[in-house]
Amino acid sequence: MDSRPNQQPDPVTQREQLTLLWMQAQPVIASYIRVGVRHQQHAEDLLQETALAAARSFGRFDAERPFLPWVMAIAKNKVIDYHKGKGKSHLSFSPELLSQLSADFEEDGGVVNDYIESLRHCMDRLAKTPQIAIELRYVRSLSYAQIGERIGRSVAGVANLLLRTRAALLACIEARLEAEEQR
Amino acid sequence: MTRDFDRFDQRISAYLDREITPEAFDRLCEDLAGDPSLRRRFLKLSALDLAISHTADQQDRHNTIASVLANDEPEPETDSVFTLYQSIEPKVQNQSSPSIRWGDVLPLLGYTARLALRDARVVRGLGAAALLVVGVLLTIALIGPSDETEPTPLANEGVPAADGSA
């Protein structure tokens, strides 16, 4: 005879379970939504909507299966719905590409946590102008033209500067992570 | 190949900055749909973008903003340092203002203190303490209006000069 209790987990346990799973998946989901929706506020709204939808339908989640693909499917549908009904001039990835990207993020999207940990060290190593460009772009959300006015560069110059800065940061972070792995 | 990779990075960077043209966006979509290694690169740069945003949010909370580093003109809507300074400064000046009308206040304080002492003999501490609180509140209420006629130097000013003068 099966000795396991034949009952559903109580709501408190279920809520705790969801919280734990969501905390693990959240950076990946946030990263994916941010890629699909470049408007920061809209991306944050969609992240909250995804969390809410996951909470509402968590009772139907099979605990024997991994949580990330389940919640990623919710996020993907939210992003696809977001792009529906937008004008023709609105730039959006196709549903097929969003599906491909969601699969990639399920596999490798967790790197964002490692990147956050290594980023500050790599930011400190940047020269002053790239640091300022990054701050103007990310803290003040300025356009290329506005950044160019502040630092005395053309629009193309700013685009190139941010491109090279990102490449340098990524190389620094990856080298750092690799060195940590070898330790 | 390297040059193609650079172009791809350029498009990603422009996409992340919301500065991409429709033509470049179409090309980016084609590249992403056809090549898993490019999607991997895209994922890494996107993760970096999110990590920078996360760090920038934290940095913003600590008021380390670009205008301070660049020494350029601050924008009032984002420069919380000056907003905070302006909201505090007039209150500090009001507190040290010499125009308190003590002539109006002292008799009232004396009266409430006498009442409090007399009351203390009867009902002891509690009633006396309440009367003292009323006295203090009345004092504060009387000091307040006398300062409303004083100009607040920074209320209509912009940003203080670099040497600290208003």
Concise account of the structure shown:
The complex is a heterodimer of chains A (183) and B (166). With 183 residues, chain A is mainly alpha-helical. Helix content of chain A is 74%, strand content 0%.
Key words describing this protein structure:
heterodimer, A: 183 residues, mainly alpha, 8 helices, 0% strand, globular, disordered N terminus, B: 166 residues, disordered C terminus
Give a written overview of the molecule.
The complex is a heterodimer of chains A (183) and B (166). Chain A has 183 residues and is an all-alpha fold. Chain A has helices spanning 11-36, 40-56, 67-83, 95-108, 111-124, 128-138, 144-151, 155-182. Chain A starts with 10 loop residues before the first helix and ends with a helix. With 166 residues, chain B is mostly helical. Chain B has 7 helices and no strands. Chain B has helices at residues 2-16, 22-34, 36-61, 66-70, 80-95, 102-123, 125-147. Chain B is rod-shaped.
What percent of residues of chain B are in strands? under 5%
| Secondary structure tally, helices of chain A | 8
Structural class from helices and strands of chain B?
mainly alpha
Mean pLDDT of chain B: 62
Oligomeric state of this protein = heterodimer
Largest sheet of chain A: none
Number of strands of chain B: 0
What order do the SSEs of chain B take from the amino end to the carboxyl end, as H and E? HHHHHHH
Strand percentage of chain A lies at under 5%
Q: Count every beta strand of chain A, where a strand is a DSSP E run of 2 or more residues.
A: 0
Individual helix count of chain B: 7
Helix percent band of chain B: over 70%
Low-pLDDT windows of residues of chain A: 1-6
What is the element layout, followed by pairings?
The complex is a heterodimer of chains A (183) and B (166).
Chain A: H1 11-36, H2 40-56, H3 67-83, H4 95-108, H5 111-124, H6 128-138, H7 144-151, H8 155-182
Helix pairs in contact in A: 1-2, 1-3, 1-4, 2-3, 3-4, 5-8, 7-8
Chain B: H1 2-16, H2 22-34, H3 36-61, H4 66-70, H5 80-95, H6 102-123, H7 125-147
